[in-house]
């Protein structure tokens, strides 16, 4: 067995991972604060439409990721990995900071959502160039027979970035009053990112170029036209398409179902209290993250394809029973009320009456329901404005377990995929070739999932479907099933480096 300089590799991983973590943090702050952002940058007349608009803006950042992959992937194969993902880091950090500075819709009108969309698109372009660079950089420093293990550390950064974003939000909420957080405190997580980006930039600045690319450049074997070589030659294009439809497409929907849709589902469909959702999701992420490394290591032993296909299969099989159990856990209609308190308020200027009911249940759960009545309309039609549910400790831990199971599926499909993609393409066009299928799979198929699934749930609820809350799962189930079948039949993973 060839001895490797693990100390040197750890320096590479640390520098790459820190920057990638920060970029994911920047990207996910927007999604983590989607409920709050929908009230700041969009018209307040229709909360559901505002939330869907926010999710659509969130998805827009994913849609442009393939274009970022093409642009920065080409640069990475022409000038090198190091300088390319330094540029993506600065672009992402600047866009994130500026989102936290945009005035609200009430102040500047439709210019607010327009500016948010533009900055969100810049974030997507930056992230499109970041991942391929970081994964390629680490893989080209690692021994071939250990690439699954070493690149799996990069895979942890996406989940870690989401976890850090949740923790920053929780800490900010705990330090400020609810009113202060709603007024200006939600901007703090966006502002903080600029500090982290600066520190990461200083670290990356001291990094050297990857040895494989440096050797190829010294030997004059780098590509002069990475885009043409990657997508203009039928042989390589076949591998690009197989990587997309047989792996990253399914991986993308499993990733975003297990982390982002789970969060959105608990907040908007189950109506759970926001801080409780962030806490239990954070716990599940911490418990699940080590499995990225485990499945990356295991893929070095038994192969990447088997583990990724198994993760898709388990997700397709278990999503509906998992989400059915989640929804029923928070369904207070079946619980016994132990105590009820109520209060009423009248806005004389608008002539609107608001009644607030606080329920305590025998199992320890709590619920707050706000009912508003517009006294200007005849006949009076009370309207439920919001319902907020706080779970009992036992129910909370059941949800932690159910989300952790979904994160486990994520680690199976995501842990080995960096090494899988790196080994699928030769060094001279690796950055470009692997970035496109990854970001189409994750950016298009995965990134559109929260908006599409939320729309399916909303539509089914309006049509009176008793199991409306499960309708959003059809999208990831169908996409993951197709990817799983294509991968099983056509994907013959052979190293091409």
Q: What would CATH call the homologous superfamily of the largest domain? A: MFS general substrate transporter like domains
Dominant shape: globular
Arithmetic mean of pLDDT:
83
- Which CATH class of the largest domain applies here? Mainly Alpha
Using only C-alpha atoms, the radius of gyration works out to: 24 Å
Largest sheet: 4 strands, antiparallel
The strand order across the widest sheet is 1-2-3-4
- Report the portion of residues in β strands: 5-15%
- N/C terminus separation: 20 Å
Per DSSP, the total helix count is 21
Subcellular location: Cell membrane
Main location: membrane
GO molecular function, one term: transmembrane transporter activity
Transmembrane segments: 21-42, 48-72, 84-105, 111-129, 150-172, 184-203, 239-257, 277-298, 307-323, 397-424, 436-458, 473-491
């Amino acid at each position: 067995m060839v001895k490797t300089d693990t100390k040197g590799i750890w320096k590479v991983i640390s520098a790459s991972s820190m920057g990638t973590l920060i970029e994911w943090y920047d990207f996910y702050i927007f999604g983590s604060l989607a409920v709050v952002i929908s009230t700041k940058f969009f018209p307040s007349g229709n909360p559901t439409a505002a939330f869907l608009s926010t999710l659509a803006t969130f998805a827009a950042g994913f849609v442009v990721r393939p274009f970022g992959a093409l642009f920065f992937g080409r640069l990475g194969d022409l000038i090198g990995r190091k300088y390319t993902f330094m540029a993506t880091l600065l672009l992402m950090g600047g866009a994130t900071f500026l989102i936290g500075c945009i005035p609200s819709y009430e102040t500047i009108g439709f210019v607010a959502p327009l500016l948010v969309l533009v900055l969100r698109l810049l974030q997507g372009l930056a992230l499109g160039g970041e991942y391929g660079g970081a994964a390629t950089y680490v893989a080209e420093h690692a021994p071939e027979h250990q690439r699954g293990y070493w690149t799996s550390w990069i895979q942890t950064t996406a989940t870690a970035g989401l976890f850090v974003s949740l923790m920053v939000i929780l800490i900010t909420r705990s330090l400020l009053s609810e009113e202060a957080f709603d007024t200006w405190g939600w901007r703090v997580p966006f502002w903080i990112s600029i500090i982290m980006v600066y520190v990461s930039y200083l670290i990356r600045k001291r990094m050297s170029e990857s040895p494989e690319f440096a050797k190829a450049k010294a030997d004059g074997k780098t590509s002069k036209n990475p885009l043409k070589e990657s997508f203009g030659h039928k042989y390589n294009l076949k591998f690009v398409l197989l990587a997309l439809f047989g792996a990253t497409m399914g991986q993308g929907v499993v990733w975003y179902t297990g982390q982002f849709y789970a969060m959105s589902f608990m907040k908007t469909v189950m109506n759970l209290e926001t801080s409780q959702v962030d806490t239990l999701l954070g716990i599940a992420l911490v418990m699940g993250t080590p499995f990225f490394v485990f499945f990356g290591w295991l893929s070095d032993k038994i192969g990447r394809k088997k583990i990724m296909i198994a993760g898709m299969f388990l997700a397709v099989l278990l999503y509906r029973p998992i989400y059915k159990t989640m929804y029923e856990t928070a369904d207070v209609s079946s619980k016994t009320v132990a105590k009820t308190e109520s209060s009423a308020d009248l806005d004389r200027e608008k002539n609107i009456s608001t009644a607030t009911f606080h329920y305590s249940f025998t199992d320890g759960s709590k619920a707050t329901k706000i009912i508003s009545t517009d006294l200007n309309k005849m006949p009076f039609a009370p309207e439920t404005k919001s319902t907020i549910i706080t779970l009992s400790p036992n129910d909370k831990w059941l949800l932690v377990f159910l989300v952790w199971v979904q994160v486990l599926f994520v680690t199976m499909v995501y842990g080995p995929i960096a090494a899988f993609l790196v080994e699928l393409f030769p060094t001279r066009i690796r950055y470009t070739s692997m970035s496109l299928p990854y970001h189409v799979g994750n950016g298009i198929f995965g990134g559109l999932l929260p908006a599409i699934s939320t729309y399916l749930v909303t539509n089914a609820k309006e049509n009176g479907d008793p199991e409306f809350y499960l309708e959003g799962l059809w999208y990831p189930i169908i996409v993951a099933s197709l990817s799983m079948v294509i991968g099983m039949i056509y994907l013959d993973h052979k190293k091409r480096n």
